[in-house]
Design brief:
- By secondary structure, the chain is of the alpha/beta class.
- It has helices at residues 8-11, 49-57, 64-80, 87-102, 109-125, 130-160, 186-195, 212-223, 236-241, 267-276, 308-311, 352-360, and strands spanning 2-6, 12-13, 18-19, 22-25, 28-32, 42-46, 166-171, 199-205, 228-231, 247-250, 254-256, 261-264, 281-284, 290-291, 312-313, 316-317, 330-333, 340-343, 346-348.
- β15 (312-313) and β16 (316-317) form a beta hairpin.
- The chain binds 5-S-methyl-1-O-phosphono-5-thio-D-ribulose (MRU).
């Protein structure tokens, strides 16, 4: 893995106001290092699929859609650099690469969606020469990248109409450009609302313990000059009670067939607070996050992370040595708290087992396309 220059200019495409989270390059897969933001703007180039897997595990790259695209690129990189002479030699190596990437993080279903998409592509082109297979898989990973940005932009347009002409939106974790190939899911909805002329102020939960809200959401919104107020997680209820929040928009790591939503730990608390205060709670996520094979939220695997994320802050110990710790990285918000699920193909409302199925119908894995709103 190589660390490089300051990325301010390289990684921000100013014309489109899009922060580039990751990029395919000849040297490898390039990531903005999300563990270093906001104090250092560095990027790293992963030169092997194992390095991409490490980048996902250590959260150099994070956020469900970004993890999916990263895995696709990791697979493409592993295949590109294979020494196999024939497709038959390449096949077991390909499966091993998929296995390593599939063992990185368990909750975001986009990871498994991306691996399946690459597996489908491999099966489709297996009869070709090794050189052609390599080209096809690299192209497929690059397509995923482009499609993810297009999906986020379409999602933004579908969701923008749900936000008030003027008001404040609370978000949790980072569901922005940094969680995806660009533009963002929840923050994409906010960006699209602002682009359509709405006056939106964002309240960002800091999002303990990994602080994606404080470190990443605040950083990327400020880059875009979007008015932002950072609050600690335990302030959300009081701020809602003061009438300062008009809507909540969050992302998702996996949405079960019945509309239960797994997202960053603390999302469930925000959803209940929103319900109590009569504030609509929206979830913005691509179709790739909808997992119709998982019937409800109780079946979603929840990643447990290291206790040091809770006992330490910026590397400094803040809790007594040896204290018992729980660190589930995600929670599940039951569908009854979700006012709508915003996707690139439109907005789903309860009953979700019907509306989600309807949205997903016709979306073959390798052919999904955003649907323009209106
Ligand atoms: O642990 P992380 O930072 O990968 O978790 C990310 C989230 O929970 C995001 O809210 C989620 O992936 C939605 S991004 C579309």
């Amino acid at each position: 893995m190589t660390f490089a220059r300051n990325i301010s200019d390289a990684i921000l495409d100013k014309s489109m106001s899009i922060i580039k989270t990751l990029e395919w390059t000849d040297a490898g897969v390039c990531f903005i290092d999300q563990t270093k933001l906001p104090t250092e703007e560095l990027y790293v180039t992963c030169k092997s699929y194992q390095e991409v897997a490490d980048a996902i595990k250590t959260m150099i790259v994070r956020g469900a859609p970004a993890i999916g695209v990263a895995a696709g690129m990791g697979i493409a990189l592993g295949v590109r650099d294979s020494k196999a002479q024939t497709a038959d030699e390449l096949a077991p190596e390909f499966e091993q690469i998929c296995k390593v990437l599939g063992a990185t993080r368990p909750t975001a279903v986009n990871l498994f969606w991306a691996i399946r998409r690459m597996q489908n592509k491999f099966a489709e082109v297996r009869g070709k020469s090794v050189a052609e297979i390599k080209r096809e898989l690299v192209a497929e990973a690059q397509r995923m990248h482009v499609e993810d940005i297009a999906a986020n932009e379409a999602m933004g347009k579908h969701g923008a109409v749900l936000l008030p002409a003027s008001g404040s939106v609370l978000t949790h974790c980072n569901a922005g450009a940094l969680c995806a190939a660009g533009y963002g899911t929840a923050l994409g909805v906010i960006r699209a609302a602002i682009e359509s002329g709405k006056k939106i102020h964002v309240f960002a939960d800091e999002t303990r313990p990994f602080l994606q809200g404080a470190r990443l959401t605040a950083w990327e919104l400020m880059k875009d000059n979007i008015p932002t107020t950072l609050i600690s997680d335990n302030m959300a209820g009081a701020i809602m009670r003061q009438g300062k929040i008009d809507a909540v928009v969050v992302g998702a790591d996996r949405i079960a067939a019945n509309g239960d939503v797994a997202n960053k730990i603390g999302t469930y608390t925000v959803a209940i607070l929103a319900k109590e205060h009569g504030i609509p709670f929206y979830v913005a996520a691509p179709i790739a996050t909808i997992d119709l094979a998982t019937p409800d939220g109780s079946k979603i695997p929840i990643e447990q992370r290291a206790s040091t994320e809770v006992t330490h802050l910026a590397g400094k110990q803040i809790a007594p040595e040896g204290v018992g710790v729980e660190n589930p990285a995600f929670d599940v918000t039951p569908n009854k708290y979700v006012a709508a699920i915003i996707t690139e193909r439109g907005v789903a409302r309860a009953p979700y087992d019907e509306s989600l199925r309807e949205l997903v119908r016709g979306c073959l894995d390798s052919q999904w396309k955003p649907v323009p709103p209106g």
